[in-house]
């Protein structure tokens, strides 16, 4: 990706926002961005859905990524039974899914993520996590995998929000925790609904396509830039900083 392409993306954003892009913080999604874990989420969701006779495909769970567990279960119940799930059904299904995910998950970091985090810090930008996950087991691994990169006051999880992605609420909360405005941040997302949430929050949203979905799915949600991996984002980070005058 050339500097001119990145500069045009920045300029297009600035024209639409009427504000100069002046990043002071980067808001990272977790699954599929910091961890190579979406394949295990999708597998666990599909197995639990099948066990409860809920209509689904494995691709659904890449498309639903970023939703809270409750919202995902409601989507499946509406499709299958034309009603939302009860609180008891949600609790039982989410507990089963979480147990399967913990069984399958190998905790592998996403290749290139450490490099991106280091370059973000070197540029003097804050690092925050904004995730739809409510699984404490994965959240607790952040300090082990990425020492001193994130602090609890710089995290937004499923426990903090009412609506979750694709609603902009999680990223708007991330801006508040960072103490910055929308034109002073980047979002890094791999999920269509996460991209939609970042765009709806008015933030320059960088998509990294680390899963099986077509690039077009992420572009259609309004991504300002798209990279094929976190490794590619790390390589192009200096050009992005140059484009915003950092």
Automatic annotation (TrEMBL):
Extent of the signal sequence: none
Record bears the keyword Lyase: no
GO function term, MF aspect, one: hydrolase activity
Keyword Hydrolase: yes
Pfam families: HAD_2
SUPFAM superfamilies assigned to the protein according to its UniProt record, in alphabetical order: HAD-like
Keywords linked to the UniProt accession: Hydrolase
Protein's recorded name: HAD-IA family hydrolase
């Amino acid at each position: 990706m050339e500097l001119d392409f990145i500069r045009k993306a920045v300029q297009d954003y600035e024209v639409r926002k009427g504000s100069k892009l002046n990043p002071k913080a980067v808001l990272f999604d977790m699954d599929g961005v910091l961890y190579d874990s979406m394949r295990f989420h999708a597998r666990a969701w599909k197995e639990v859905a099948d066990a409860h006779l809920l209509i689904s495909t494995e691709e659904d769970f890449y498309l639903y990524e970023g939703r809270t567990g409750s919202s995902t279960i409601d989507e499946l119940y509406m499709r299958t039974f034309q009603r939302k799930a009860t609180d008891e059904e949600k609790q039982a299904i989410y507990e089963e899914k979480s147990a399967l995910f913990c069984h399958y998950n190998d905790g592998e970091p996403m290749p290139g993520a450490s490099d991106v985090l280091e370059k973000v810090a070197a540029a003097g930008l804050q690092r925050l996590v904004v995730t739809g996950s409510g699984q404490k087991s994965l959240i607790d691994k952040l300090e082990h995998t990425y020492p001193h990169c994130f602090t609890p006051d710089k995290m937004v999880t499923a426990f903090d929000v009412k609506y979750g992605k694709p609603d902009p609420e999680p990223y708007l909360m991330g801006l508040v925790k960072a103490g910055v405005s929308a034109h002073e941040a980047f979002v890094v997302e791999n999920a269509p609904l996460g991209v939609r949430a970042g765009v709806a929050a008015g933030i320059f949203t960088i998509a990294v396509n680390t899963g099986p979905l077509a690039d077009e799915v992420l572009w259609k949600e309004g991504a300002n830039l798209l990279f094929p991996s976190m490794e590619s984002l790390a390589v192009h980070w200096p050009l992005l900083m140059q484009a915003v005058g950092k």
